[in-house]
Write a structure and sequence with these properties.
Layout: H1 3-10, H2 20-27, E1 32-35, E2 40-42, E3 51-56, E4 59-65, E5 68-75, E6 80-81, H3 84-88, E7 95-98, E8 102-107, H4 109-118, H5 120-149, E9 159-160
Antiparallel strand pairs: 1-8, 2-7, 3-6, 3-8, 4-5, 4-7, 5-9
């Protein structure tokens, strides 16, 4: 496995403190998925079976409301998405659409399971890191909901998504 790719992954919150050999094990069968501008990695409601690490390009996280797509956030190189599916195996809660040509690593529960058999400690660290990332996002959402309930405008007002 390319040393730069491993070091790049180690700089991300989900893969922080993960040894190079553990990342090599995790990624040995993780394919790179390329998506063209306007295409989707997945859509809200789809069956969830993996997470992604965006290597290049930009994407939008979108949520449908009253027949329109609303932008939740934008993703850039180094961002992970779909990680909730690794924990809860529920349908996708939002869509992810490429805003430019994208390339992302796809990591499945089977990839993590293989790592668990080889190195349970490193597997546990990744699971804790995923949990921390989900909790970080939940805290930010809780804060926005609280401020909205108190009559304050949210820090980020969701916008109707218009590609391009």
């Amino acid at each position: 496995m390319h040393t730069q790719r491993i070091e790049w992954l180690q700089g991300m919150p989900i893969f922080g403190a993960i040894r190079a050999d553990a990342l090599e094990c995790l990624l040995e069968s993780a394919p790179t998925i390329e998506v063209e501008t306007g295409d989707y990695y997945f859509r809200e409601g789809d069956e969830a079976a993996c997470m992604f690490v965006l290597e290049s390009g930009g994407a939008a996280v979108l949520k449908r409301w009253e027949g329109r797509q609303h932008l939740l956030r934008r993703l850039a190189s180094g961002d992970c998405f779909g990680e909730m599916s690794i924990l809860d195996l529920q349908p996708r809660s939002a869509s992810v659409q490429a805003e430019s040509p994208c390339r992302a690593l796809r990591i499945t529960p089977a990839d993590l399971y293989r790592l668990c058999h080889r190195d349970a400690e490193q597997f546990a660290v990744i699971q804790m890191n995923i949990g921390r990332e989900v909790c970080r996002r939940l805290r930010a959402t809780d804060e926005m909901l609280f401020r909205t309930a108190m009559g304050e405008m949210p820090v980020v007002v969701p916008e109707v998504y218009r590609p391009g």
